Amino acid sequence: MVKAANTRGTTSGTPPRTRVLVVGGGYVGMYTALRLQRMLRPELAREDVEIVVAATDPYMTYQPFLPEAAAGSLSPRHVVVPLRRVLDRCRIVIGEVRSVDHAKRTAMLTTLATDEEGTGAVALAYDELVIAPGSVSRTLPVPGLADHGIGFKTVEEAIGLRNHVIEQMDIASSTRDPAIRDAALTFVFVGGGYAGVEALAELEDMARYTARYYRTIRPEDLKWILVEASDRILPEVGEALGRYAVRELRARNIDVRLGTRLESCEGRVARLSDGSRFPTRTLVWTAGVRPAPLLAATDLPLDARGRLVCTARLSVSGTEHAWAAGDAAAVPDLTASGPDAYCAPNAQHAVRQAAVLAGNLAASLRGEPLREYAHRNAGSVASLGLHKGVAHVYGRKLKGYPAWLMHRAYHLSRVPTLNRKARVLAEWTLSGLFKREIVSLGSLEHPRAEFERAAAPPPSPADPPGASPPADGGGGAPDR
Question: Which segments of 59-154 does DSSP mark as H helices, in order?
Fold first, then answer.
């Protein structure tokens, strides 16, 4: 029988049920719930346990595939995993957890229904808490960044960036103003980690290919700039492969600025700490992540970086019935030599931590012993565009085509569900047989614009030629 005490109370004649609340539908949230519904199958069948997953989106995004989705090598629907299909024995609640009062075992949650009803956040009681809201982009107080910066953490941002890049090429091909053309064809990426390097490399590949279909744009007209504050990029793959990656990018006419910071991007002009100045309509910010703001709205212990303080058993330190892992958790790294080492916030640790967390949570419900999480980093792989990459796996260093092939093979093995594996493999096969798609679907971001124009009253004769009537909701696409 379930060991944890039920804190929510029950109605007369109803047996106690332990509610496990999983906050977050990312790597840790989805994999923890997936493993729990397998391990607790008897308890779920007897209705002794209920697993509730509260997530802001109805899907989990496999983030290593975002660069390929942005480049058009993969369809966006194939880089996400629908939670309702995978977690068929869990209760899925699409909404945002605003705060957690663990002393009272209560989370405050808003959903689309509460917005419609105007009731505000509602209380959701639980007995066991798995808090894994992940991370958000770590921004700095750079003037103009909030107005002009583009993130790269979600599938919506990846597809929006693809549409944006192609739209800039459309602008450059049709303008007569050389200043507008130059700004449209200048793309600045800030951050030399996985996200920044892979996104830039894939999009540069895509844009260079797309340029052949524009009569007035040559591939060398496009200006790509990577800004990194440290003296190396891709630190996870090692110094030697990081230098190789810099050489490869520069050989493709990509301007890599090491030891350089973005100081301002006001007025659509990127000003760097080395004195450089680049008018640009595209500034992609990938300079790190920070824990989700939700953690500050809980009564759980946090470290100096805002992460949950956890034990090696993935329980929240000094707190019963609370568990955490992934980007939002400071988990001791038992394989490191130093006493104060913590697991890196990457997918490799998150997936493995989720398995141990689920096992320990199930064991605690059954009164069984818990085990500690220990995993030595197996290595890292990174793509530098089509047929190019770097890999440092189990002490072996690969570069070029073999590394790119390992990158694809590894992530194909890790993407959840056989359905997604088959679809991804099919798309890769087809993309090798046919040409790239170069279509921009920016209008998807404003689906009602066309109907609003059609439904608007016709212009009066007094209106100047070309004037368009106002429409509620702003049907036109914004100035990019």
Answer: 66-71, 83-86, 112-117, 145-148
pTM, two decimals, is 0.87
Domain with residue 100: its CATH number is 3.50.50.60
Average pLDDT per block of 10 residues along the chain, 480 residues long: 46 67 95 96 94 96 93 91 95 96 96 86 96 91 94 92 94 95 97 94 95 94 96 91 95 96 95 96 93 95 94 96 95 85 88 95 95 88 92 89 93 90 93 81 75 84 57 44
User: Residue 412 in contact with residue 426, Cβ under 8 Å?
Assistant: no
- Shared domain for 117 and 234, answered yes or no, is no
| Last-in-domain residue among 307, 334, 366 | 366
Contact predicate 286/191, CB 8 Å: yes
301, burial (CB in 10 Å: exposed 0-12, middle 13-18, buried 19+): middle
H helix or E strand, kind and range, residue 264: strand 262-264
The answer to whether residues 70 and 40 belong to one domain is yes
Cβ-contact 200, 68 below 8 angstroms? no
Q: Would you say 299 and 102 are in contact if contact means Cβ atoms under 8 Å apart?
A: yes
- Is-contact 283 184, C-beta < 8 A? no
> 302: domain range?
18-137+290-366
Report the Cα–Cα distance between both ends of the chain, in Å, rounded.
Answer: 59
Q: Please tell me the distance from the alpha carbon of residue 68 to that of residue 75, in angstroms, as a whole number.
A: 9
> For residue 223, is it within any domain?
yes
Report the alpha-carbon distance of residue 81 to residue 416 in Å, rounded.
Answer: 7
